[in-house]
Amino acid sequence: MNASITTWLLLVTCFVSFDVKAKQIAIVIDDIGYHQRDLEFLTLPGQLSYSILPHTPYSQAFASLASQSNKELLLHVPMQALNGKKLGPGALTLSMSKEQLQQTLGTALASLPQVKGVNNHMGSALTQHSQAMKWTMEVLKKRHLYFLDSRTTDLSQAQNAANFLGVANISRQVFLDNIITPEQLQLRFDELKQQATDHNFAIAIAHPYPETIDFLREALPQLIDQGFELVPVSQLVERKYIQLAQAEGKGVSAR
């Protein structure tokens, strides 16, 4: 295990305890910031995490209110996609030099100092390129932020780059609302719970759609009764590395 991650792990385990048998779920609401209605998602119960697009009309208001409610925030960094879709402000592209990419990312992070981590918005092109991902991870390492790979491509090199540079990282398992019919939302939610049952934790990404908030208002309260715990993404990042350390016989344990 990378020395930087091990040092970080030794610190967090002094303050975090885990029930290793707990079935933990993190749900990240992506694409926050363009609409006032996004604020309504803060009324959902439980420890949801929210990923905010940089330099958007409601990014600052959302971050302020979320912080007051002790909700975990990520920066949702637009990254170049294979489909050529418009990326929005603060985007990282393959045409950028190292200096341009790191300055763009640094500016976006400075605008939202509340974030604990970063995940990619789109990025099916950029995340395939190891060099661009290493430049990205250099910025996160300096700021002690984790990376959540949204996994918009199976060829993503993001986690490899993060591991190489000692940046704590994790990836999502389920997109909850790619299809926003009630039947499909329930199907993906059931898939998420099965992932958590099989692996003790799982991460889903959802979006600020009216159909999604209506579904989650009904589904989230049921999780506790069904034996699941809703937690911020950072708690699953910590859990991941504790489990890795234990598997490698490093003798690191929560206390």
Could you please describe the fold and organization of this structure?
Helix 1 packs across helix 8. The protein is of the alpha/beta class and 255 residues long. Helix content is 41%, strand content 18%. It is built from 8 helices and 9 strands. 43% of the residues are buried. Strands 1, 2, 3, 4, 5, 6, 7, 8 and 9 form a 9-stranded parallel β-sheet that branches.
Topology readout:
Elements: H1 3-12, E1 23-32, E2 49-52, H2 59-68, E3 72-79, H3 98-111, E4 117-122, H4 130-143, E5 146-149, H5 158-165, E6 169-171, E7 174-175, H6 182-199, E8 201-206, H7 210-225, E9 228-230, H8 233-247
Parallel strand pairs: 1-2, 1-8, 1-9, 2-3, 3-4, 4-5, 5-6, 7-8
Helix pairs in contact: 1-8, 3-4, 4-5, 6-7
